Amino acid sequence: MGFWQTVWSNVLGGIGAGLFFVFMYLVVQWYLQATDLLVSYNWSYKTVSGVFSAWPNFVVRNRSRTRAYRIANVAYTHKGQVHWFDNESLWGFVLEPGTMNKALSGAPVKNLGSLQDALGLEVTIRLQTGRAFWLRGEGPGQMGRSRMQRALFALRAKLESMLIAME
Fold first, then answer.
1. Residue (of 122, 70, 62) closest to 91 by Cα position
2. Helix, strand or coil, per DSSP, at residue 5
3. CA-CA distance, 124 to 113, in Å (whole number)?
4. In sequence order, what DSSP letters do the residues of 89-129 get, joined into one string?
5. How far are the Cα atoms of 83, 85, 102, 121, 143 from residue 80, in angstroms, in the given order?
6. Coil, strand or helix: which one is 141?
7. Of 18, 25, 48, 92, which residue is 20 to 30 A from 7 by alpha carbon distance?
């Protein structure tokens, strides 16, 4: 190989390696942000004077060590169709880094006739940044996560149990 071929192959190899490491850094940052928040919930309900009302009680864990999040609203869907948006009960609540918040209650969900109707709803928390990606709560009646979501959350849990700092 000649001198210029060697120079160009080294330059292109270095650029390629640099782009690979930048790409891997972006993938890791996306992964950390995508698995920062864990949302789970259960339903509370009561009947007063024959009127049924139900509301979710959330447990939200912010696993980030540096980033705080603000909740915007809670979306309720039934088989992909919008049922109701709760824009007031959790609006502006700050999820501090490294905290678990278990005293979060949503407002009573409108147009529910029974607990079975509540169990048919999917509950999604949306952030004020517009992010709702993978923030569907895990609770009764909730649709399951995809294989990729389960694998990524399991990987993060495994790495954290081994005490490897993720940030």
1. 70
2. helix
3. 21
4. SSTT-EE-TT-EEEEEEPPPPTT--SHHHHHT-EEEEEETT
5. 9, 13, 27, 9, 11
6. coil
7. 25
65 DSSP 8-state letter: S
Residue with tokens 């190989």: 1
Q: Is 71 helix (H, G, I), strand (E, B) or coil?
A: strand
Listed residue (42, 112, 122) closest to 78, CA to CA:
122
Rounded Cα distance, 114 and 119, in Å: 9
Give the bridge partners for 47, in sequence order: 52
Task: Specify the length of the chain in residues.
Answer: 167
- Rounded to a whole number of angstroms, the CA Rg of the chain reads 22
- Tens of pLDDT along the chain (167 residues)? 789 999 999 999 999 999 999 999 999 888 888 788 888 888 999 998 989 999 999 888 898 888 899 999 998 888 889 999 999 999 999 999 989 998 889 999 998 888 888 888 888 888 888 877 556 666 665 656 677 777 887 888 888 788 766 55
Closest CA to 68 of 110, 108, 96: 96
H-only helix segments in the chain: 3-34, 115-119, 147-161
Closest of 117, 152, 156, 121 to residue 134, by C-alpha: 152
Q: Is 122 helix (H, G, I), strand (E, B) or coil?
A: strand
